[in-house]
Structures are given as C-alpha cells and as structure tokens.
C-alpha cells in the first residue's frame, strides 16, 4: 500500500531550498506541489534547475503558495527576519510548518509562531537535519548507558567554516536587516542544539558569552562562543565562526566514557556516518599508548538525513490529516530551548559578557 503523499509548498528560492527540495523528492511520503518567490522568473528558474515535478505550480508570490488548497505543508527557508510574519500566516492558513533555523529573532517572536501553530492545529519542526540521522539515535544509546558513559560532566561543540570576501559582503547571513544573528544564528544554532541534545534538553542555569567575538562593520557577529553552566556542575562550551576552517566537532565527557564525532552537522559521507566511543580509558604500563582504545561505530543509511527529516515531518502531518492525531510538541519545545540559549549568548555579549540566567 502506497504511503500518503504530503504536498509541500516552498516559500523562497534560497540555496538551502535546493537541498530540501531534493529531500522532498526522495522522501517516500512527500512531494513538491508548489514553489513561490517574489519573482516569478526566479521561481521558474528554481523549478527547472532543481527538477521539480512537471505539475508543480509556480507562483510569483509567497501568498499564492499559502492560498493554494493543494498545499498541505510549507518549507520556509526565508531570512530569519521574515520568519515570524510568514510562519504565522502559514499556520493561520492551516499549513504545517517546516521552518529553517534559526527559527526567530528571539524567543518572544518564536512564541508568536508556536501560538499560531497550536491554535490552528498544525505541526511545527525546524530544519536541524542531523537530528534525524540514525547515528544520532545510536549515540543517544551510548550517552544514556550509565555503565558505559556514566554521569555527564562536560560538552564541547564547534562548528566553523571559512567564507570568502563575496560572502562577507553580500550573503544574507551578514546583513543586519535579514539575519541579524550572523554566525551565532547560522552555525552557532547547531552547536547550541548539540549541547542541549547531549544534555537531554535540560536548560543550563546560566549562559556566558566568551570574550573576543568578531563583528562586521554592520555589527553582525562573524565569530563568537559561550559557556553554559548547570546547577549539578555540568559545563559546556561552544565556538562558532565564519572565519575559521571547516570543523564540526562534538565531545561529550562522562565519569566513565567519552564520545567524539567530527562531522555532526553534515556527515563526511551521505550514506554513512561514524562516531567514536570509549569507556574507562587509560594508558599502558609505560604510558605510551591508550588501553583500551576508543571504538569506532559506523552507521549506514539508505536515505540521507535531510530526507529522513522530511519523512518524519511528513509522517507527523499525515497522522494529523488522516488519523486525527495532535501535533507533536517535542519539536517546538526543542526549538524554543535552542532559541533561549542563543538569545542568552547574544544578551551576554551586549551586557559586557555578564552571565545570563535562563528562565522558561
């Protein structure tokens, strides 16, 4: 029996939409029904370049996609400054919402999005793709094993990539009126999410930005970092940057075990991903080697992580449409916690690197 096809509309032709439109095409339970841009010619070019279905509707406005009765859900890759407006409107039009990260300019703005989703019974999910890779679930098994990992003590995350002069001049991620969070919102979102994921989404008590953030002339963050502290003594650090070589690391240290991976956002290979795990590691008698050595674990997947994201989102939408299920609250809850920490880092920078206490 064929799976129900959830019909997607895409708002905007951002570069990331190329990857997600491919994911929608590869997902067994999804299809692209419509693409909309402020320019009809741009929408047509996107549809042609990305092999959208021949019957996909092409619109010269975002409103037309939201007004299309054949669209069940929308993927929104617009600049962060436009998220609240179009996400709220999508929810009011009863369109389920797959929203790119960072989800909003601040948590209060995000709350207006979630209020619209909840009051209209639509599913929300953000576009943090690595959460859906089967490696992520396998790593969770190790972190949850008290015999192998023990009690969590520290987390360290880093996501950086070096951009060129064209990016620094013209990319929307360095424009204060489009993506005011800069590197913190783009790559920092992933680092913060990874920390919360390791900590099983327990919010830290305080967040303090690291000294030495770098800004462009418009005041947008190009690199920064932060420390997170929990009441039980757990600590985490992260660093994000547009000015350093490509790095995507997570290190989680427990009382008994350690987890490492070096490609957490985008795996080195599309159909497999690895991590290393070690328990009660030590040295040999002469202290010239590790005994035992950490073990490498490789997880293969037929479907890439972005396809698995679309597949899971579409399954939730199908449950609501066909079975009368209620929207899953896990995803908006995780998004909001990530946004709260991001907001706290920014506030700490603005207040001279003061610790910021997190509320709910």
TrEMBL record:
Domain Gfo/Idh/MocA-like oxidoreductase N-terminal: 6-125
Entry's Gene Ontology molecular function annotations: nucleotide binding
Organism this protein belongs to: Carya illinoinensis (Pecan)
Protein name in UniProt: Gfo/Idh/MocA-like oxidoreductase N-terminal domain-containing protein
Annotated GFO/IDH/MocA-like oxidoreductase domain residues: 145-259
Pfam families, sorted: GFO_IDH_MocA, GFO_IDH_MocA_C3
InterPro entries: Gfo/Idh/MocA-like_OxRdtase_N, GFO_IDH_MocA-like_dom
Family: Belongs to the Gfo/Idh/MocA family.
């Amino acid at each position: 029996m064929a799976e129900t096809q959830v019909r997607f509309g895409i708002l905007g032709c951002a570069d990331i939409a190329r990857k997600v439109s491919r994911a929608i095409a590869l997902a067994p339970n999804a299809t692209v029904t419509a693409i909309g841009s402020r320019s009809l010619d741009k929408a047509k070019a996107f549809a042609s370049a990305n092999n959208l279905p021949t019957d996909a509707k092409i619109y010269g406005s975002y409103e037309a996609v939201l007004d299309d009765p054949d669209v069940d859900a929308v993927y929104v890759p617009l600049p962060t400054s436009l998220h609240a407006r179009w996400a709220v409107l999508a929810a009011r039009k009863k369109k389920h919402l797959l929203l790119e990260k960072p989800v909003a300019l601040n948590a209060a703005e995000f709350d207006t999005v979630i209020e619209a989703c909840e009051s209209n019974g639509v599913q929300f999910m953000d576009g943090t793709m690595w959460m859906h890779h089967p490696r992520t679930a396998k790593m969770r098994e190790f972190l949850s094993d008290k015999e192998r990992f023990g009690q969590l003590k520290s987390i360290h995350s880093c996501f950086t990539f070096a951009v060129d002069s064209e990016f620094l001049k013209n990319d929307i991620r360095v424009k204060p009126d489009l993506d005011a969070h800069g590197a913190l919102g783009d790559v920092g979102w992933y680092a913060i999410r990874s920390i919360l994921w390791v900590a099983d989404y327990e919010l830290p008590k305080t967040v303090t930005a690291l000294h030495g953030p770098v800004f462009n002339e418009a005041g947008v963050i190009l690199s920064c970092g932060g420390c997170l502290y929990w009441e039980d003594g757990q600590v985490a650090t992260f660093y994000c940057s547009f000015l350093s070589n490509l790095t995507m690391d997570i290190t989680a240290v427990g009382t008994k075990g350690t987890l490492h991976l070096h490609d957490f956002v985008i795996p080195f290979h599309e159909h497999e991903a690895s991590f290393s795990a070690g328990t009660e590691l030590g040295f040999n008698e002469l202290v010239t080697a590790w005994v035992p050595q950490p073990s490498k674990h490789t997880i293969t997947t037929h479907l890439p992580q972005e396809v698995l994201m679309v597949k899971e989102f579409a399954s939730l939408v199908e449950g609501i449409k066909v079975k009368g299920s209620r929207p899953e609250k896990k995803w908006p809850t995780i998004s909001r916690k990530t946004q709260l920490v991001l907001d706290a880092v920014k506030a700490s920078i603005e207040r001279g690197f003061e610790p910021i206490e997190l509320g709910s």
